[in-house]
Amino acid sequence: MKSGTFRLSRRAMLSAIAGAAAVVSFGFGAPAEAADPLKVSAIYTVPVEQQWVSRIHKALNAAEARGDISYEFSENVANTDYERVMREYAENGSDLIVGEVFGVERAARKVAADYPETAFLMGSSFAPDGENFSVFDNFIHEPSYLVGMAAGKATETNKIGMVGGFAIPEVNRLMHAFMAGAKSVNPDVEFMVTFINSWYDPPKAKEAAFAMIDSGADIMYAERFGVSDAAKERGILAVGNVIDTAADYPGTILGSALWHMEATIDHAIEAVKAGEFKAEDYGKFSYMEYGGGSVVLDPALLPDGTVEEVEAKQAEILDGSFTVDVNDEEPKSSM
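That's the ABC transporter substrate-binding protein sequence above. Prediction below.
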C-alpha cells in the first residue's frame, strides 16, 4: 500500500471571462454595460448541500466571486412550484436562469418559450428547445470508469454494492461506466444494484447499503448520501460520486468520480455576455477534456500499482485512444 491521497491530473478549466469596457448588445434584451455583472438565478429542488446541485452552486458562487454575475437561488422547490419560481425570476429580469427540470420538463420548456429574451440552462435528459432553452448533464462516465477500475482492484469478495437515486440516464450511465471499469481489471466481480427512488433520503440509502453489505459486498458505490455512512459503520470501503467526501469518511473512500460545473457555467455566461446564447447541449463540458470531470484516489486504500494503471487509462481517455461508452439503460444486478 501507499500513503497519502493522490489526485490525478486533469486539463485546466476554461479560462475566466475577461471584463470588457465597451458597451455590448445582448441577444436577450437591451444593450448593457459589459462590466455589469449578469443577473443569474438558480432553482433547485433539493438542498444546495446535495451533491449534484452543490456542484452547480459552487460554480455559480465562483462566477459571482469573480464579479461576472450577481447570483440568487431558491432551494427545496417542489415540482409543483417550479414553474411559478421560474416565471418570477424571469419577470424580475434575470439574464440567465439555471436549474434541473427532470420532473418538470414540459412546464419548464413552456416558461422558456414565454420569455424568449431570457437564457435558460437546465439539467435535463432531453434535447435543447426553441431559441433559449439549453440543457446540461453530468457526463462523468469517464472518471466513473476510472474509479471503477480502482474498485475492481480493491475488492476481496468480488462483490460490489451500488445504491442509486432514480434509474434515469444521468445515474445509469455512471453506474454502467463504473461497472465496466471494474470488470476491465477484474472479470470475476459481481454487482448488486438498487434504486431508492429519491434524490435525498440518506436513511433509506443507508438501509439499502446495509442489506448489500450483509450479502457480502465489501465495496459500496455511493451514488446517494447515506451509503458511505453504512460503509464506514461496517468497516468496508466506498466509492464517492460527484463530490469528494473522503475528509468526512477517513479510511473509507477509496476514490471518487468528481463533477466540475465551472466549464459549463462559464460557457453560458460568456455566451450571454456576447449576445450569442442559443439552445444547445452543454453535455460535452462535463467531459474530462474540458475539465468537467476528474478522479481522485486514495493510494493507502488500494493495491500497489492501481494508481499507475488508472493514470495510464486516463491518459488514453484524454488523448482519444480510449473511449468510455455511454450506456443510459437501467443497470441490473449480476448476482
